[in-house]
Amino acid sequence: MNIAQAIIEALQSLASNKLRSALTILGIVIGVGAVIAMLAVGSGAQQAITGSISGIGTNLLFVFQGNFTEDVRNPKPLTLGDVSAIRDVFLAPSVANAAPVIQGDREVSFSGEQIRSTIYGITPDYLVVRNYHLIEGEPINESHLLERASVALIGPEVADKLFGAREGVVGSTIRIEGQPFRVIGVLEPKGGGAFGSQDNVVLVPFDTAQNRLIRRSRDRVDVIFVSATSPETVRSAADEISQILRERHRTAIGADDFTVFTQDDFIATANTITSVLTIFLGGIAGISLLVGGIGIMNIMLVSVTERTREIGLRKALGARRRDILIQFLTESSLLSLIGGIIGIGLGWLIAFIVGRIAAANNTLLTPVVGVDAILLATLFSTAVGLFFGIYPANRAANLEPVEALRYE
Amino acid sequence: MNDYVIEAYDLTKIYKMGSVEVRALAGVSFKVRRGEVVSIMGPSGSGKSTLMNLIGCLDQPTSGRYILDGEEVSKLKDDQLAEIRNRKVGFVFQSFNLLPRATALANVELPLRYAGVSKGRAERARRALELVGLAERIHHRPNELSGGQQQRVAIARALVNEPAILLADEPTGNLDSKSGKEIMELILTLNRERGTTIIIVTHDPRIAEQTQRVIRLMDGLIVEGGA
Asked: Searching chain A, which residue's CA lies closest to the CA of residue B115?
């Protein structure tokens, strides 16, 4: 008996019990569909997160005070001195620019509207390093710093909420913690990021923030944003910065009292989290596939019992053990294969709907049905069919012809 | 070539039912010539079915030798037995045992498929169906055929591999007397025209009297016609 015939015969036999076959297939459809959909949503989440981290700028590094993984006693704060050292071309040739930032959440209001947003005290370099562009107005410049001018650049979200518009707001005076600031420009939207929304921000001159809004002691810096000369030099820039800061903080021996983060670090962390999530979701979905497989086994056992006489007849006509085994394995594999194929469609549909729902809620989540997920689900479901088909098929193949023919 | 298609020497078959041993066959010896028509008779419990299973290679004797068409089959393994059944035995059952989902042609093709024949299979099956007078109905399914026609399909299926013996178990048992008569005529015609060796297991004396020799069984032993 060749394979094509075995398949045709198996299809005929499955077709003779349509409802039963359909229900058995449904078990596999749900299992495979769930696996595909979960993997798709998982990898979609991964891409969304990776994408939004990349949106920050590809050659960006962050320097924070303190060590995130080890305990350090009396960590030295980052200072403006550190910033100038990092900007030294000879000490750090891979660094293109470095911008000190102090930040804090404050009340911002305009004619009765009040919101809370993140205030950044920045230098003109910050706009360059973070790759910010303006919808209108002009950037913060050196003289604003020197004059400790009460001027502000506002993010598009702030503009939306306070003015209900993103243009024509330059020249208005907003109040931050009750103090008047003149709006000199509006930032282009950047979307959500690793530190929450990058659009709900107000940028003010560093010295102004230091003196009037955030109140840090002289020289103190919360975060240093550094841009490397190119995406390829990010790694060496990180090494150079670490070298400089170890020397300046006299921590050449022992743990660093600062942390340099690159985007790769963020992406790697985010990927670890989403991978765990994907495996977890996929695993739960896999259980339903397993249940579907048990359904196949159940129905095949019933089928073997029902067709005992047929098996006896086939053996009397010269069917060998192997022929019967192949016949029943073909049936169970076909059940799971058909279920798998429909399941891929269902999974794709679920993923598509999840994507639509996410889009409707302004969430950046596009589920990705990968070829690997499809292959995995098809292989896995066929394997399930084979595995759970082996026992019933074996039982059929081992029937004694005399006994089987006598069965009523 | 051996004159005898079946040679059985001192066949016994003992079934174990729990701790009780049931001696279904207690030493049976007989021979059947090529081209002979033999019937096996006996009351229920006489070992008739057991003997039929041994002749048809569906089962192995507990002891004794059984030679079918020159081949010693009493020591063969399951898959080898399956091959012997396929090549040398054509079965006709009381309840026809056709596959309900398959057409007459597909039913007749089945033994050829298990024999691994791939070329000219449909043609051979069609010729077998012509032989039993069903050339017009090869694409009908069993439920579209009368009982007599179904049994003809079964006979075609039994003949398609050109076996050494045709083994019929109460072939007319499920038929009305008219179709039963037709089936018996067909079987006897096949013997006359093609020289097919035929063994009929029956308890109907009217069937048995149409055969050349009657082997009578009683309590696991041959009481008449052993030759």
From this structure: A318
